[in-house]
């Protein structure tokens, strides 16, 4: 028996009879406003992928015994489409998201799909709603591809039905006034991920348990928590982002950009990978080292005391880079310097510019940018 | 501002106009058939718990940005109602499930509720569908209280809306021919739960990642996997059940019933607690020890070689007790004896009888059994 692959050529489009007008940029709240259409494709273990449909944005109707409600058969991606100066709409490294989405699916026995076909379908969806892609630096269209198990029944077993849906949200900069450096509380009473677990996959299961430590950090005046791991108290991630530190050796003057290695406990961030690639390409190796290595909160505290901790930032699709100005750790406060009168350090600012220049088409990058629509 | 507590006195009932007739017992598949009605109650962070409703079983309609689909804001309970010889329908230790449900909710920032009120509401739901509670040893009504986050929007934050729903499934014995001893494969390449995680809570997040190791065990001829933890390779759970081992000291003849301690990585099973309580009450302490302690796969293999491993079983609401006859571990097979011509050891059989005698009302137990309907 053959099962059907995901195939964009069967796409069926039903237009929304009530097209919306774009909201003013200043009314956009992250992930709260959605466009007129959504993409859905259903899968069945016997027949494979069905007809992809673009249709008016609307509710999903599911049996209360559906496995997505009980056993967290769900995963997602976060991507963005950018409107360039010459009115093209382009995706940033969609191949990376699709690859990760298939890896997430494999980990929880949801179906795999042809990555290029889903990129094509997402392109068609964006084409349909292209008038709602906001214009301006820091504005973009957030794209949320999601896959859920949709078979009914309470036995804990492999889903026999699933669904991909994609929704689009016009968004502004994560912080309205550009960068705003955040304060983190280091968390060692809760653990985000573990070897042999699934913390490197973008599963719903990794997110709900993150809220309590975040909330507790917030109650003490911190915007986010910083996840530590193990007796060594290695720094792993910040909230739901990857995290980078910049050190400067006080003797040699040599600088180091550090992030946690992909050991199975770290989300394989697309922004993380992009920061590393751009840093390796743009920074002078006689002045800089770029390292994926373990780094403990003890090292960070110690190097801060020696004046060697010079920057820190989180990286993720939503905020791109998010500068860090302070870490609360036990009863200490680890201060992280910012440029005078600004909300980030020098490298953080450069990294943000390198990436946004590519995203908004001011710097051409053939492999990372894919145009999906023109206005 | 006061928010409304969950209150059963506001219950609104809408009867299903098409009541179903009970299926023959031999057609009941676990968690596949549901009764005519469901219970729903919605919650809002501003106003608290709304009107509880019993209404015809039917689909949930949710926005595709609903947080349950993206961040696994979901938890559940598994309970059973039993039909006794004198045609009463009773719940087994519902207070334990309600307490655990609130602990699960707290862990992922979903709302708490008055436990007695939800038991009352579940009782009313069962009353409504009491003609569908199957009769006979091993048959019961499986009850699935579920709570989901239901607010819309893609920001990872505390749900501002939630919903409890309860559905009912008439079920037969987990294995049609009574007990059937299972073979387990010990898993050390994947980890179910870890300190600082949430493996002790009944969250959806703990279940989807369990399927892959189960599937891999099945591909090698094992019905379930046995979860190990850490470099010590402590035995923690079997599939989605707690696990017990019985040892007999070859020198002293003293027996020991062992299960993993509640250290935050072990689901706080109601059946587990009941097995421990009944064993402590019914077994002669001069012959038996009942211990919650760490026990490694190395100890199990070693004691098997010495002939000291005499029984093993899983415990959970669905199967009650599930005898184990073999564990595959690296290239070894650890054999576990069964009674001649039977599918379990002697203690496993006794434990199953102790519990089912209480569940079916053959032995009275005031604190553990609550009658909710009469036929």
Automatic annotation (TrEMBL), chains A, B:
Superkingdom field: Eukaryota
Associated pathway: Amino-acid biosynthesis; L-leucine biosynthesis; L-leucine from 3-methyl-2-oxobutanoate: step 4/4; Amino-acid biosynthesis; L-valine biosynthesis; L-valine from pyruvate: step 4/4; Amino-acid biosynthesis; L-isoleucine biosynthesis; L-isoleucine from 2-oxobutanoate: step 4/4; Amino-acid biosynthesis; L-methionine biosynthesis via salvage pathway; L-methionine from S-methyl-5-thio-alpha-D-ribose 1-phosphate: step 6/6
Record-level GO cellular component terms: mitochondrion
Catalytic activity: L-leucine + 2-oxoglutarate = 4-methyl-2-oxopentanoate + L-glutamate; L-valine + 2-oxoglutarate = 3-methyl-2-oxobutanoate + L-glutamate; L-isoleucine + 2-oxoglutarate = (S)-3-methyl-2-oxopentanoate + L-glutamate; a 2-oxocarboxylate + L-methionine = 4-methylsulfanyl-2-oxobutanoate + an L-alpha-amino acid
EC numbers, comma separated: 2.6.1.42
One GO BP: L-leucine biosynthetic process
A GO term, aspect molecular function: L-leucine-2-oxoglutarate transaminase activity
EC category: transferase
N6-(pyridoxal phosphate)lysine: modified positions: 202
CC cofactor: pyridoxal 5'-phosphate
Matches recorded under InterPro entries: Aminotrans_IV, Aminotrans_IV_CS, Aminotransferase-like, B_amino_transII, BCAT-like_C, BCAT-like_N, BCAT_family
Family from the record: Belongs to the class-IV pyridoxal-phosphate-dependent aminotransferase family.
Name listed for the protein in its UniProt record: Branched-chain-amino-acid aminotransferase
Organism of provenance: Tetrapisispora phaffii (strain ATCC 24235 / CBS 4417 / NBRC 1672 / NRRL Y-8282 / UCD 70-5)
């Amino acid at each position: 028996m053959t099962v059907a692959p995901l195939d964009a050529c069967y796409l069926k489009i039903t237009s929304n009879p009530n097209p919306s007008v774009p909201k003013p940029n200043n009314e956009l709240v992250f992930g709260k406003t959605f466009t007129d259409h959504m993409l859905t494709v259903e899968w069945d273990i016997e027949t494979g992928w069905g007809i992809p449909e673009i249709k008016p944005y609307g509710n999903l109707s599911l049996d209360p015994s559906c496995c997505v409600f009980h056993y967290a058969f769900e995963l997602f991606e976060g991507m963005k489409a950018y409107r360039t100066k010459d009115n093209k709409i382009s995706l940033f490294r969609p191949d990376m998201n699709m690859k990760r989405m298939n890896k997430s699916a494999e980990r929880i026995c949801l179906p795999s799909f042809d990555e290029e076909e889903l990129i094509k379908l997402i392109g068609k969806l964006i084409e349909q709603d292209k008038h709602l892609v906001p214009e301006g630096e820091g504005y973009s269209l957030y794209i949320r591809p999601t896959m859920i198990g949709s078979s009914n029944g309470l036995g804990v077993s492999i889903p026999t039905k699933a669904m991909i849906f994609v929704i689009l949200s016009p968004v502004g900069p994560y912080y309205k006034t550009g960068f705003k450096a955040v304060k983190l509380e280091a968390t060692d009473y809760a653990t985000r991920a573990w070897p042999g677990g699934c913390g490197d996959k973008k599963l719903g299961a990794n997110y709900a348990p993150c809220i309590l430590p975040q909330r507790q950090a917030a109650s003490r005046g911190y915007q986010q928590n910083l996840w530590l791991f193990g007796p060594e108290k290695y720094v792993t991630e910040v909230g739901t982002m990857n995290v980078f530190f910049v050190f400067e050796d006080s003797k040699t003057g040599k600088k180091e950009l550090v992030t946690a290695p992909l050991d199975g406990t770290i989300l394989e961030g697309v922004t993380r990978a992009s920061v590393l690639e751009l840093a390796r390409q743009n920074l002078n190796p006689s002045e800089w080292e770029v390292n994926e290595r373990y780094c403990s909160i003890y090292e960070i505290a110690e190097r801060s005391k020696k004046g060697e901790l010079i920057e820190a930032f989180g990286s993720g699709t939503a905020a791109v880079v998010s500068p860090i100005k302070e870490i609360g750790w036990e009863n200490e406060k680890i201060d992280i310097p910012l440029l005078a009168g600004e909300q980030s350090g020098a490298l953080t600012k450069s990294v943000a510019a390198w990436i946004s220049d590519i995203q908004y088409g001011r710097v051409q990058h053939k492999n990372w940018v894919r145009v999906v629509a023109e206005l």
